[in-house]
Structures are given as C-alpha cells and as structure tokens.
C-alpha cells in the first residue's frame, strides 16, 4: 500500500495577499465605530456628549503636541563623591582700601527681585543695598530686572531700547530675536517732594521677546509670589537663561553706546561695576564674555562682583545642558570644564565664582567658617574648590547684610498706618522722665506698646485672632517650612506654649519640612495654634502680625545673617533662637546682663535637634515668663521694646564700617584687579 501523501495546492496571489482585496479586522472595527458615532451624532440627545468627547480628545492631542515642543528639564539625580577640604585662613577685605568710590561710579545690579518685585532675601538685599548707594548721592546706581506685568501698574516706564539676542531654532540654527527694554526711576528720597534733586535708582526692565513661542510667555508674574513660576509650556530654564543673555546684551549696549555732550562738564561713563545676585544670574558673566569685543567698546570692560546669598540652596541651582545649548555654544565645555557639570545638568554658580573679579557672601562669619573650619553643607563639592581658590587670593569676602526698612518698616507701613499700629518715630528723642511723670495711661508721647496693642486689636476685629488673644502672649514664627529653619523644634515648642496658654502663630510657605505633621495640633488646640501657609496672605498681613507679636521664635540653623531675627527686633520682639555664631553678631542673650535682646540656646548638633530640645524649652519658657512680668510693669515694657528697636536700627546698611562701606571696598578692589588684567593685553 502506497503511503499517503499530504495534499497540497498552489497558493494563488489572491489568497496569499488578502489585505489587497479585503479590509483588515482593525479597519472593519474602526469603520463600524465611526458609523456608530455618526448614528449617535444624528440623535439630538447624544450631540452634547459627542461634543464633550471630541473636546477631550482635542485637548489630549494639544497637550501631547505641546509636551513634544516644550523644552525639557533635566531630571538627573545629583551624584557627588564626598570630599574633604583643607582649611585655609580667611583673609577678608584690605581695610586700607578707601571706602569711597570715585564720584559718578556706575553700578548695575542684576537680579530677579527688587523693590516691589521682592519675594525673599535676595530682593531685600538688592533693594537695601541699591537704596543706600543711591541715597549716598555720589554713585550712579542701576538695577536690571525682568519686566513683570504688575510693575506696569505701579510705575510709568519709558521705552529705552530695542535689542537683539541669538537663540537656536528647532533646526539648531542661530536666529535673532528682538526684545524691548524699558526704564523707570525708583525714588529713594525720604521726602519725594523735596525741591532738591531727588535721589533715584534707574531700573531697567527686560521684556519677553514678542511673537517667539514659548519665550513670549516669560515673566508673566501677576505678583511677587509668581516671580519664580514659569508659564506652561515655557520652562524655568529657558526663562532664566534668556534673562541672563538679554541682561548681558543690555550691559554690552550700555557700555558701547556712550556719547558725551559737547559742552558737558564731565565725561559720560559706561558701566563700571556689574553686581550679579544669585546663581540664577550667574550665566550673565559667560554671556558677557562671549559678547565682549574690545574694538566695539568705547569704555573699559566692567568689573564683575558675584554675591552668593544662600549657601544651602544656591549651589544646587542647575540648567539642563540641552536648554543651555539653546542659548550658547558649549562646544567641548563639559569635557574641559567638568566641574560645572553633573549628569545632564550645568551648575552655573561655580562659573561665576571662578570668573568674577570678586565674590561675596551675605555673612562675614559664615564666609569665614566655610574656608577656615570647612563648614559642612549639602553638595558643597559643587562650589568649594572654586571658593577656596578665590579665598587664597583674598577674593572671597563675607559682608553681613543690613536691615532693609523700605520693605519691612513698622514706622511707615501702609497697613500699620491705616490701623493706628505704626510705631512712633520718637525713638531717639523720647523723654523717659516725662513718661514717669505722666504714667502710661496719660502719656502725651506716642508709645510703641500702644501701637503693638492696636495691631493685635485689629487682628481681632478682622477675625484673625480671638478676643482672648488680647491678653495672651503671642509668639510668632515667619519663614520657609524647611528643616534648616529648625522646624524639628516645633513639636516640643508647641507642647510648652500650650501648657502656658500662649498663642503661637506659624507663618510661612511650604518647603522640605512636612508642615502637615503639625496641623493636627491646630485641630486639637485651635485657640492656641495657627498655621498660615498662604504666601500672598503673608505678604499682605505679615507686618501686622509682626507688630502684634510679643516674641519671635527663630530656631534657624543656617540663616546667613539672621535677617528674620533682626526684623523681629525692629518690630519690638525679643528673639528666642539658636545661639549660632551668625546670630551672635548682633543678638545679646539674657545671661545675667541687664541689656539683652534675646534668649539663645546652644545648638549642640545641627544634625540632631533632640540634643538641644531641653535648652530650647528653657529659653522659650524664660522669654514667656519675662514677658508676663513686663506686662505688669508697662513703663519698663515700653523702655525694653524701645531698646529692641534701637538695636535693630544699628544694623542699617550705612552703619559705620557696615555693608555699604564694605561693598565700596569690594567694588574698588574689583576695579583694580580688572585694570591689572587689562594692562597685560
């Protein structure tokens, strides 16, 4: 029997390629789905539903396209090999250098914050320094900031120039984009109506480029709280780097377009000093270097001073390399200068530290600790080699800030004036003997204690405090909710304050500390604990709370100058805080001395707050007990509070041998160093 053979048949082309003749199963299903949708669409009751579904699909598609087009932020984790550094002596400023600059010296501050556009410490510092410099009368002081929309409502600016910068398009080709610069005058005179020539700061405001998406969305802040928020899909990187490049272009323009009128008594000056504030503006120095062409300048190259305002966070500021290359050609920079890069990010702070003529920090004590005792802080490896290199040459300078009374002022604040809570200005000419003769109740002199009571009374009327709080001691904390502000102490502090029936106001904005861990206390003790985490509310009402407070709680571990504590003194509050060296610059702890302004506790270990909790509770308890005693002796309380305010006023920017004079020496040194460099060429 023959074996069976498998029957075969030839496969025709029509069978081999069925897709050429019949629809695929997916195509059939898709067609049926469309037909069903069309049938539903014909029925009136389904029309709205179909419109809604189509709208959702359109929005999803639009979001996907924007995500593809929008600039990418680098999200690499920071990987650093921990390093130890040998300590070196802190040289500081040469005090033989004159503290006076040549009359008419031009200074240009570059910052994201200034004056009404102030959110934090950088804005307060730039505002205070620029105001003091302009008030001196011999300097030409200027500030460069972005053109935020809310500034237009506050100041009438004039068109100054239309300039141009180059950025890469989607094909990586350089394209020119135009932007406008406006200018307004910020009056720093105590009396703006003074017939004498007013003293002003010229403020240059850089606008977003028009019609260039998404850069035309830059600087769309509706208020100071939105300064560091970028509008989707514009990334923060693009906004920051664009501002740096535009600011460098403006400075170049100001230093090139100099014309002295024929019959002028003095020659017009260009830009003498550029003062960069904060790591987000560090790249200005790189853009200026690339723009500087000797033949195009009628004036010498400006000297550059770079100020670090926060050693805890500024070195962590970074830009994705892809975003940087949109604005500057890095070429082989990551290979020849690897210390500026980590992963796919550039960390620009070290660039400015290396290239500026002088580098400053906002606390002399911390600047000294950084190089002499190798102060430990996160990711210091990003900037420590650069700092040590400058410190060896005496180009790393600590300058302790002053108090800026323009922004935080108990004497002239509008809300305090409206509520009769403003402090009287008779600080220096108060007649103590007259107060004893008249008594508190019959005093013909305005009293600070009365102002503080009125502030508390207004908060009660607004429903922000209870009637019982008028007779309660009020302890205030204002600051970011972050670990380096000492918030680990709060639970123990709350337990103590509740036991003494004290009102504790915790006011700030979210950061790395989980403030939610404290909110259960608000539910358990609503009469004693209040947490305010709305930034706009804090900006609007913060000064009234400061004026009403009896004690300021500042357990901070890292505050560069302790500005919060200094402001507490200005508003008549003794300070309870950690006895760090930076606070000891101006705080006198109560240790048996009669003249004191604070209750300081030792911070045994910055990384272990538990070791200092008992000391903190003792300091806080003593402050509350002493305040209760002062309430029973109102005349003594008035004198005590006045002494606190006097201590704060001694911390002004123009105090003898203070920050105004020190920055003049820094500028003078920077100019001398630059001249030596230029002589080599």
TrEMBL record:
The chain crosses the membrane at residues 49-69. Residues 107-374 form the Starch synthase catalytic domain. InterPro entries: Starch_synth_cat_dom. Residues 1-22 are annotated as: Disordered. Pfam families: Glyco_trans_1_4, Glyco_transf_5. Its main location: plastid. SUPFAM superfamilies: UDP-Glycosyltransferase/glycogen phosphorylase. It is found in: Plastid, Amyloplast. One of its GO terms (molecular function) is glycosyltransferase activity. This is Glycosyltransferase family 5 protein.
């Amino acid at each position: 029997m023959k074996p069976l053979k498998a029957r075969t048949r030839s496969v025709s082309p029509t069978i081999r390629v069925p897709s050429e003749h019949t629809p695929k199963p997916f195509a059939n299903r898709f067609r049926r789905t469309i037909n069903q949708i069309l049938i539903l669409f014909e029925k009136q009751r389904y029309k709205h539903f179909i419109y809604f579904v189509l709208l959702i699909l359109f929005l999803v598609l639009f979001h996907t396209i924007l995500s593809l087009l929008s600039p990418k932020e680098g999200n690499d984790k920071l990987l650093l090999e921990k390093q130890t550094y040998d300590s070196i002596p802190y040289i500081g400023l040469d005090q033989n250098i004159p503290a006076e600059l040549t009359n008419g010296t031009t200074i240009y501050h570059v910052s994201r914050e200034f004056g009404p556009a102030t959110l934090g410490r950088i804005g307060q510092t730039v505002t205070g320094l620029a105001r003091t410099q302009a008030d001196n009368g011999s300097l030409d002081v200027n500030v460069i900031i972005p053109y935020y929309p809310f500034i237009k409502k506050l100041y009438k600016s004039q068109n100054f120039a239309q300039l141009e910068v180059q950025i890469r398009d989607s094909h990586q080709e350089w394209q020119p984009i135009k932007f406008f610069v406006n200018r307004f005058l910020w009056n720093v005179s105590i009396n703006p109506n003074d017939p004498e020539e007013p003293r002003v700061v010229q403020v240059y405001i850089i606008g977003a480029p028009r019609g260039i998406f998404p850069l035309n969305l830059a600087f769309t802040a509706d208020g100071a709280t939105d300064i560091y928020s970028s509008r989707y899909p514009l990334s923060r990187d693009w906004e920051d780097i664009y501002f740096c490049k535009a600011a460098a272009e403006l400075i170049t323009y100001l230093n090139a377009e100099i014309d002295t009128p024929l019959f002028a008594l003095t020659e017009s000056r260009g830009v003498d000093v550029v003062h960069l504030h904060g790591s987000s503006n560090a790249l200005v120095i790189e853009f200026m270097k690339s723009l500087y062409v000797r033949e195009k300048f009628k004036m010498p190259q400006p000297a550059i001073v770079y100020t670090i305002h926060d050693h805890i966070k500024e070195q962590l500021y970074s830009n994705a390399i892809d975003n940087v290359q949109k604005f500057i050609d890095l070429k082989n920079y990551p290979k020849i200068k690897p210390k500026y890069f980590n992963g796919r990010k550039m960390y620009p702070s070290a660039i400015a530290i290396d290239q500026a003529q002088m580098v400053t920090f906002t606390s002399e004590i911390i600047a000294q600790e950084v190089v002499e005792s190798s102060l430990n802080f996160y990711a210091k490896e990003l900037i420590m080699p650069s700092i040590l290199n400058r410190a060896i040459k005496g180009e790393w300078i600590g300058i302790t800030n002053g108090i800026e009374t323009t922004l935080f002022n108990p004497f002239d604040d509008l809300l305090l004036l409206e509520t009769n809570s403003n402090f009287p200005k008779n600080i220096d000419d108060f007649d103590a003997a007259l107060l004893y003769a008249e008594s508190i109740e019959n005093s013909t002199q305005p009293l600070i204690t009365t102002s503080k009571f009125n502030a508390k009374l207004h908060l009660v009327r607004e429903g922000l405090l209870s009637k019982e709080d008028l007779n309660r001691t009020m302890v205030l904390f204002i600051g970011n909710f972050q670990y380096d502000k000492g918030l680990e102490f709060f639970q123990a502090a709350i337990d103590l304050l509740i036991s003494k029936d004290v009102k504790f106001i915790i006011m700030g904005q979210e950061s790395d500390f989980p403030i939610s861990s404290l909110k259960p206390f608000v539910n358990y003790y609503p009469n004693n604990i209040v947490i305010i985490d709305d930034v706009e509310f804090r900006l609007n009402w913060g000064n009234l709370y400061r004026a009403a407070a009896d004690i300021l709680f500042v357990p901070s571990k890292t505050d560069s100058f302790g500005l919060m504590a200094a402001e507490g003194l200005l508003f008549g509050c003794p300070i309870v805080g950690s006895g760090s060296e930076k606070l000891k610059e101006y705080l006198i702890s109560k240790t048996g001395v009669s003249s004191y302004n604070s209750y300081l506790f030792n911070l045994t270990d910055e990384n272990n707050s538990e070791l200092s909790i008992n000391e903190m509770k003792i300091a806080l308890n003593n402050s509350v007990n002493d305040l209760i005693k002062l309430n029973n002796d109102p005349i003594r309380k008035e004198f005590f509070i006045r002494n606190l305010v006097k201590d704060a006023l001694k911390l002004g920017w123009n105090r003898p041998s203070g920050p105004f004079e020190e920055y003049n020496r820094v500028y003078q040194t920077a100019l001398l160093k630059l001249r030596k460099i230029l002589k080599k060429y």
